Give the backbone structure.
Amino acid sequence: MPHSESPPESENSPIPMANVDQEQEDTVAESTTAQIPEAQQPADEDVDMTDSNAVLSAPTNGTTHTSESKAGSSAETPNNQDTPVPETATSAPSESKPATGVKLEELFDEMDSDDDEFPTTKAAKREPASSPDLLSSQSDMEIDLHEASDPEVMRTFYQRLFPWRYLFQWLNHSPTPTNDFGHREFAFTLQNDAYLRYQSFTTSDLLRKDVLRLMPSRFEIGPVYTANPRDRKTLRNSSAFRPLSKELCFDIDLTDYDDIRTCCDKANICQKCWQFITMAIKVVDTALREDFGFKHIMWVYSGRRGAHAWVCDKSARALDDQKRRAIAGYLEVIRGGAQSGKKVNLRRPLHPHLVRSLDILKQHFQSDVLEAQDPWRTEDQQEKLLALLPSDQKQLVSALRNKWASSPDRPSTLKWADIDTVAKTSTAKNFDTKSLLDAKQDIVLEYTYPRLDIEVSKKLNHLLKSPFVVHPGTGRVCVPIDVKRGLESFDPLGVPTVQSLIREIDEWKKPETKEGGQEQEVEKHVVDWEKTSLKGYIEFFRSFVIGLMKDEREIKVKREREEGGGGESMEF
């Protein structure tokens, strides 16, 4: 989308609301064991299934997720082959509807001793897990020896630490079951590398039980469909099964910065190159809020080298593919692969979004690019910089090349300053200072502006890894990032791992109070995640869900009033 145009205004292009069926189902089905076919696990951290009939995903060889690699992998699998979906069996009662008048915050009260989603300390003593080994009795060394993908390690995490209730309320937009959750697609990557799509559940408890039964290495979240995904084959009209709504998502991966980061490459990261993600989050989050009016945006660490954005507003979830492509195009500035030349070519005057982005990024460019990365120290690297200067400034380029040849170890900060210094002494006639300024702005954007995998954002039916799952390669939990309070201080290498969390549970000691010289235990049920460093992340997630559900409830009440007449009654 050309950046000389103004961003779309909501008044001129209203976004349709999704029709959500609020009818609560009376019964739910629990899935039983099914035979899982062999398939290859996709290499991506998220999955784009453009063919709604495809169930298995073939492997990709690239470390980044591009549309080409995905299309190639899906072509190897016939579209008419589906993974057998587990049959439904015994039914269980659905979650009860909360009493009238209960405050929304009270739905998150953890004092309920009957809550088996988050077993309390007392409950754990009363009902020990059926697994013969929850690793609670193992030494620190034995815990560390377990891989993050070890089934018993994962079983412990999903049984005791994963926030099932809040995940349900986040996707359901209500404390009681609706089609927003019941018709939502989940996809499992199993331990044998099989990929199981079109799974659906009416309650969080059924999702939890199926995860504990299948023990996937991870699971993805897809769209809400017009019908239950498990029933798609029974529909008389197959075209009636289509995606209805889904969060607008964005994906940023550090492998897309390999041509400009000097500290790491491929899957390796450090605090220096993580600043590229910090810059990207600032720019994208600001644009989504100020230019499009979105409010409920959650950023989640991907578990290794990137971050995902979930835009959860009702208007964002109802966007069709065309509107999603428009927003993705609006945010796309960097074009071309690692081997291409100049990746930023912008028309002047700059769009207000880009002027604002430059204002956000200029400080990062000095400290996190020039100083921390030193991207033009070597001769080969400095030639990349010279190639980005205006092509008609040959005298300037030649003078800079000669100056830097006499100082081989000249740092990038000084080389950047040399451009202006040498330009001021130029004797060339009709020296175009405006084109040099424009080129320098383009260079700043090329080295700092977000590099988005826009294919993730374009499709309504794209699947993305769930928050709070464990990355099988690093063991780190995919935790949310508090953009307002903790973005600058967020350390991806300091995110808790599943092994460290299990150890923290074992090392936790119940607080005690002293009264009358005698020690008395605090009679408070403590859920397992509250005993660990995961506590702050789950509490942030809970507050995000509360805010989202409040807005959803207000929208529902307003719509009901409008449909009910809403006007003043006539008096006779």
About this structure: The chain is about 35% helix and 10% strand. Residues 4-102, 104-143, 567-572 have pLDDT under 50 and may be disordered.
